[in-house]
Write a structure and sequence with these properties.
The protein starts with 20 loop residues before the first strand and ends with a helix. The longest helix has 17 residues. It has one domain. The chain has 1 helix and 4 strands. A hairpin with a 3-residue loop joins β2 and β3. It is of the alpha+beta class. The protein has a 4-stranded antiparallel β-sheet with strand order 1-2-3-4, covered by helices on one side.
Length: 99
């Protein structure tokens, strides 16, 4: 009997990164209409993330974390811009100023 399998081969490569590096990870669940996006800024020594969850107009959650640098978001599919990160940061600042 022959069975078809899928192999995934992990390849390491060296890439050139300019700091600060900005990324965006969209975790939105379109089935339940929950918006969930992580915006990040990575410097030579640290990483700052803004986790924005929007469940409805009246149900918005922001989490902000600052940690040592992680290299997990350097893939091209996560690449973002300073402008996009700063817009998310401003939304979070407005949110926290309301409290």
């Amino acid at each position: 009997m022959k069975v078809e399998i899928t192999k995934q081969i992990e390849v390491k490569e060296i890439i050139e990164i300019d700091f600060p590096y900005y990324y965006k990870h969209d975790l939105t669940d379109y089935e339940y209409e929950n918006t969930c996006v992580i915006y990040g800024k990575i410097t030579e020594s640290e990483e700052v993330t803004i986790h924005e969850k929007i469940r409805s107009k009246n149900n918005v959650i922001y989490e902000i974390e600052k940690d040592s640098r992680s290299d997990s978001y350097f893939a091209e599919k996560y690449k973002s811009t300073e402008e996009e990160y700063n817009k998310a940061r401003e939304r979070a600042k407005r949110f926290f100023n309301v409290l």
